[in-house]
Design goal:
single chain, 183 residues, alpha/beta, two-stranded antiparallel sheet
Length: 183
């Protein structure tokens, strides 16, 4: 147990509900997904969830055509001033009949409330979900933490993320700890 607590302290996970700190920029920079090849591409994690780099307003029609009923924005406003901001994506999603929720993840890491918000969003979705951020990495990692907290096997989480081209290694200790604590 001491070893798990030490590794979690190093990674920044605070199981008491505070910050699950970890450098999201490290994971995005070291993602196996080349940004130039995934622009405007949805990557399927499972039958209900896909992730994507930053979407455009035009991508909302493609999402709807693929059966997306919920868009989850994991990118904070202002991170890239030229990208569509939260209110723009929300308005376009709602106009297309797609639900929208923002759970922005900064480069300072994840928090317990963000993981809980992702669980609530996915549980409340009435169809497919598309989550996006700059590269899709933060969205995948937040999905991973949410799945772990619900007791999904860390190996299964890693397999599904890997099949979509994302590596959860930077948060694997957090995933293992959350999955071990789920009941």
């Amino acid at each position: 147990m001491k070893k798990v607590i030490a590794s979690l302290a190093t990674g920044g996970l605070l199981l008491g509900g505070a910050v699950l700190g970890y450098s999201t920029s490290f994971a995005e920079e070291n993602s196996s997904v080349p940004l130039e090849k995934v622009e405007n591409m949805f990557r399927k994690i499972n039958d209900k969830v896909s992730v994507s780099p930053q979407i455009s307003l035009e991508d909302i029609a493609a999402a709807k055509a693929e059966g997306v009923r919920l868009i989850v924005n994991n990118r904070p406003d202002g991170e890239e001033p030229t990208a569509p901001q939260s209110a723009d994506i929300e308005a376009a999603a709602k106009a297309a009949g797609i639900d929208y929720v923002a759970i922005p993840i900064t480069h300072s890491g994840f928090s317990g409330p963000q993981v809980d918000a992702m669980i609530a969003a996915l549980d409340g979705a009435e169809g497919k979900t598309l989550a996006y951020c700059r590269s899709g990495t933060r969205s995948t990692l937040l999905w991973s933490l949410a799945q772990a907290k619900q007791g999904v096997s860390p190996d299964e989480i890693a397999r599904l993320a890997g099949n979509a081209g994302y590596d959860i290694t930077p948060i694997r200790a957090m995933v293992d700890a959350l999955a071990g604590g789920a009941n």
